[in-house]
Amino acid sequence: MEPEIKRILYATDLSPNSLYAMRFASKIARQNDGRIIILHVIEKIPATAYALLSTYLDEDQMSARTREGIEYQAGQIRKRLDLLCEKECRFDPELVNRVARIEVREGYPADEILKEADAANANLIVMGTHGKGVLENTFVGSVAQRVMRRSRRPIFIVPLPKGPIDVTIEGATADSA
């Protein structure tokens, strides 16, 4: 019996590669009459930075500023993701209807991806990865590695192709980032 792919978690860091990966998530959803949950994780402030800031601000001020920052970033990310969905509709006019929801969270990316995959009972996780350095073809990105090591769900990793690609958002092309 062939497994169903009806709930796809598309994890994005909003890099050009992740925009390219959305096309794969969209195609898989279209082929399987599935729905996509888009997730972006805003990384937590490192403990050392938090400790430094706390010498200048009290706990209430820190909480308020952190909350305001996350709300602002979440709003900006939602706008970019909405724009992305709108632009990608030229390839898949039904994409907007396939997106079940857009989630923006604060936390550690791999942890939040795995939590959302469980909460949504995702059949597949789709994410992009960047090759960095001399061994770019040997290593997958650190978030993708952590998700692959800990997940019991299928994961579709999309590497950035060599050369320019035609994915753009807000005037930045994938090969210029």
What structural keywords apply?
five-stranded parallel β-sheet; disordered C terminus; Rossmann fold; 21% strand; globular; alpha/beta; 45% helix; two-stranded antiparallel ribbon; 177 residues
Largest sheet: 5 strands, parallel
**What is the CATH level 1 assignment?**
Alpha Beta
Can you count the beta strands? 7
Order of helices and strands: EHEHHHEHEHEEE
Q: Assign the CATH superfamily.
A: HUPs
- The strands making up the biggest β-sheet line up spatially as 3-2-1-4-5
Termini, distance in Å? 42 Å
* Sequence stretches where pLDDT stays below 50 over 5 or more residues: 133-139, 169-177
Query: What's the domain count?
Result: 1
CATH architecture name:
3-Layer(aba) Sandwich
General shape: globular
User: What Rg, in angstroms, do the CA atoms define?
Assistant: 17 Å
The CATH topology corresponds to Rossmann fold
Into which percent range does the helicity of residues fall? Answer: 40-55%
Average pLDDT: 80
